[in-house]
Amino acid sequence: MAKNPEHRDLFPGALEIMILQSLRLRPMHGYALVKHIKQVSDNLLQVEEGSLYPALQRMLREGWLESEIGVSAKGGPTRVYRLTDTGVRHLEQEVVSFDRMFTGITRVLAVAKA
Amino acid sequence: MQILNRLFNRHRRYDDLSVSIQEHLDERVEELMEEGMLRKEAEQTARREFGNIALIQERSREEWQWPALESIIDDLKFAFRRLRKSPGFAATVLLTLAIGIGANTAGFSVLNSVLLRPLPYPEPQQLISLHLNAPGAPGLAEFRSELRLSASMYLTFAAHNRTFQSVGVWGPGTASITGIAQPEQVDTALISEGVLETLNVPAFTGQWLTAADQDAHGLGRVMLSYGYWQRRFGGDPGVVGRTISVNSQSRVIAGVMPRGFKIVNYDFDLLVPMALDPVKEQLAGFAYRGIARLRPGVAVPEANADVASLLNVWMDSWSNGPGGDPHWYLRWKITPALLPLKETVVGSIQTVLWVVMGTLGVVMLIACTNVANLLLVRADARQQELAVRSALGAGRWRIARELLLESVTMGLLGGAAGVAVAYAGLRLLTGIGPGELPRLNEISLDGRSVAFTLILSVLSGLFLGAIPILRYVPSRQRLTLLGTMRTASVSRERRRGRNLLVVAQVSMALVLLVSAVLMIRTFLAMRNVDPGFSDPASLQVMRISIPGTLVRDPQTVTRMQNSILDKLAAIPGVSSAGFAASVPMSGAEPAWNQIYIEGKNYAGDNAPMRLYNYVSPGYFHTAGTRIVAGREFTWAEIYNLRPIGIVSESFARELWGSPRAAIGKHFREWESMPWHEVVGVVQDVRENGVDQVSHATVYWPSMMNDIFGPGTFDARRTVYFALHTPRAGTQSLLSDMQRAVWSVNSDLPVDAVSTMQDIYSDSMARTSFTLVMLAIAGSMALALGIIGIYGVISYTVSQRTREIGIRLALGAQKSELKWMFVRAALLLTAAGIAIGVGTAAVMMQLMKSLLFGISPLDPFTYTTVPVILAISAALASYLPARRAAAVDPVEALRAE
After folding, report:
1. H helices present in B392-545, as ranges
2. What phi and psi, each to the nearest 5 degrees, are found at residue A50?
3. In 10 A of CB B710, how many CB atoms?
4. DSSP string, B370-390
């Protein structure tokens, strides 16, 4: 499915945290999200549309997001996704648990190198 | 709540989603155009980058769904849509299934209610019927399947058994009830102590008869059936303790039995205590039916052994009067063969029910075969679609599931309609109420029937679905072949499935038709039998009982019967009248005993049993029973107790070689009886129905000397009057008859009124019921078989149009072409016939007991049915074959 073999697919939890974090800055629509994540990560991460839309629906279902009418990059009206309070709390929990996980992974990798 | 919200908001969500995706694409397109692409190119690029839009939408939507269920629901919706799109197909399939499943549900309900469900008594597995065999009693087995119990046997069993909780004997009877409304004759059950205890169903109101009611010197109380209580007393709860006049004796009502309660399979109005007097009982008097409840843990063989030893006790304890040898009955070799009570209740109807059920099952199979054929044709049409879907990545299971869902849905819909069909059928059946069917009032659609329907529906659905799946869900390797299939003739492999179905259909139809024709031949054979009476439609029958409690003196009884007869004969339109203790086929208990012939020695003093009847002067003339030699009785002879008798033709031939030789010969029943002279010989009468051989019969005068010594005599108190008149069966005749009877004695109820024609038809009810069922099933099978052959051949023709075109173009003769298709059909039919004949020959052995006058391998049947089938097959294939011959080669070859 990957359009570019250089890019790895994000695992589901990671994709969600990327989306939540991006939406925390401002409400965005789907295409903006893709572009935003690509830019911010310096092209290291590319979000697949095939994963993005199901993920957005899943997060709407969980109540972390809400969809509302917003403004597109061109200034036209469009559907944007906004983080809810529940979403913010979930994001914060996830960030903490990701931090711990990355710390763990880094330590293990460091030991392996040594 | 949340789930509901989700359900209701879903469609808004779905809309949002597609808008979002569309906007996503639009924005990307604009961006690409800004980079210098043309719109078309930009759109293509955007889509390519995005991926499979429909798939992503579906995946996203699935977040809101329970995917497995929802996709099944989608498939279901699809199945329904497909059914709606072809209403003709849907109607055909559903109707076929509804009839098939409905008939089977009805059949199963009857089978379940009659054969499978336990009897409606507490702990019915403990109940047995005291069946005795007497292989040493010559001739008995010819007209009775068992030796009934004598009262002394019952008294012995009740006192000394070690294996019963309780035991009792009973017998059906009638009694006249007077003083309530018009005098009425009701059906009574005479019961000994132990009968109610054995069946153990509590009284609905009031109480059971007790030991005190069985006192031979008292006048015990009686009990009412629920039906009689409702009918005569309007369900009045105050009836307990009231007095009614039974056979002119006042008796107190002890209680009412609950609705549906029967003594074994006998539907009574009144329970009357038997009030046996041990002092007066003898060994003989084998008249009663015995029932018992086994002690817990006792098995039938153990109880048999117990009864066998009790029979010795019986012979040791009783006699047939002074001077008799109490062990004389050792000659009869009486042996117990106790049966579970259910077998007695169900009786011989078992065979009929299984045959009917088997027939219905075969019809169902044929129906399913036809539907399967239709489905195959439909799946054929979808072949391309399925292949394309498979190529696009639909899994084999996914496609199979859809096909299965479709067919199971049809099965269930058919089943639901089938329950309605079954309900209507059962209502019809209980409405007609064939008298031979026991436990009729218990027949119902219960949980088990519904479960049966459900299983049958699902199974037929799976069966129907499996055929197209096995045939058409393509494997990946076969995909490449599909392209070529469009124009080629149907491959052998694909044709084989349908051919097999046709062969199966023809063979099943053959089996059913053979059984139907055998039943028709049985019916005709029975119609051709001379029953021993003539013009039954003009023969009016009624029963009148003069109980000893009303008129004590036998002479007076006979005078009363004589004057009733005179009054009846004087009714306008009545050409003759007579009476007898029993009329043929009326189901009355036969009387029988040994008959000794003058000058003949009997080994072991053990003369054969003969059937008895007692007749008035003029009875044979009225009934149309031919007098072969001699004459009938006269009234003078009856009043003078002349020792005379009339015998049946078979009896005369057996003993004296010819009817003429029998006249003037002598016979008697017991030693002290005067020799009776044969004054007449009458033709044989089919006493128990036309399919039962006539037994050697002795006709005694209606009043004669009895066993209790010289000078004592007795008259038959319950007799059937027969009137020969064209007015038979009319209401006006009935009123005239009642008036005639009541002018003699106003307390005499007129009972069991019917025409001989009705009795005659009733006696053939089992045969005609089976006949009608099999005839319906057989014609359905034939019709379905013809449709099946027609369908297959015309489908083959349409599939092979191109090939036919080529053949014609190459110069094939039209007649040859037609013959090619007819021959194909005939080959299939021949195969089906061959299998069917073999199956029928085996199956018909099971039906043997239902046949009369023909062999289960009747050559006529086994030649006509195949010929009929072959002709039908030829016709059914000729029509499509003619279409094949009409193919225009130019048109056919232009197809591609």
Report:
1. 396-432, 447-472, 476-485, 492-528
2. -65, -25
3. 9
4. HHHHHHHHHHHHHHHHHHHHH
Beta bridge partners of B580: B615, B720
State the CATH number of the domain containing residue A21: 1.10.10.10
Q: pLDDT tens-digit profile of B245-263?
A: 998 889 999 999 999 899 9
Domains contained in chain A, number: 1
Q: Which residues constitute the domain of residue A56?
A: 14-113
Nearest to B627 by CA among B576, B678, B568, B584: B678
CB A74 to CB B27 under 8 A? yes
Q: How far, in Å, are B139, B195, B240 from residue B206 at the CA level? A: 46, 17, 6
- Does residue A3 lie within any of the structural domains? no
* A79 occurs within a structural domain: yes
Assess contact for B612 and B591: CB atoms under 8 A: yes
Question: B96 in the Ramachandran plot: left (φ > 0), alpha (ψ -120 to 50) or beta?
Answer: alpha
Interface A-B, measured as beta-carbon pairs within 8 A, has a size of: 64
User: Which DSSP string corresponds to B318-334?
Assistant: --SSTT--GGGGGGGT-
Q: Residues B724, B692: contact at Cβ < 8 Å?
A: no
Distance from CA of B50 to the nearest CA of A (A): 6
B-interface mutation test, from A58, A62, A79, most B Cβ less than 10 A away: A79
Question: Cα dihedral sign for A8, A12, A17, A22?
Answer: positive
Terminal C-alpha separation, chain A: 37
Instruction: Measure the CA–CA gap between B249 and B232, rounded to whole angstroms.
Output: 18
In B688-827, the DSSP E strands lie at 697-701, 703-705, 713-715, 718-724, 751-755
Give pTM, 2 decimals: 0.71
| pLDDT 10s digits, B813-851 | 888 888 888 898 899 899 999 999 999 999 888 888 888
